[in-house]
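Standup notes
- DV: blocked on the single-chain target, sequence here:
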Amino acid sequence: MDPIAFKELLEQNYTWPSVYMFKFVCPASHDNIAYLESLFDSETAEVQIRQSAKGNFVSITAKELMLSADAVIVRYAKVKEIPGLLSL
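- DV (later): unblocked, structure below
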């Protein structure tokens, strides 16, 4: 999605600061999981990781207090570095 359109959508649907839920699916590797976990504050974010039935993929759901729509967009930009990652 176009970052400008996404920012407008976030601004319309949230009052900042707000708890935002991120959902991702990516190939199951220790590096991918460690990188995703490092993006979220371990003291304040609620992160859930579930492995697929065959163990090839993991789904990650993270809820964290975000200060602005820009902060959400920056977070999504950082996860683009993971090959095979899907943002839901």
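- Follow-up: The chain has a mean pLDDT of 91.
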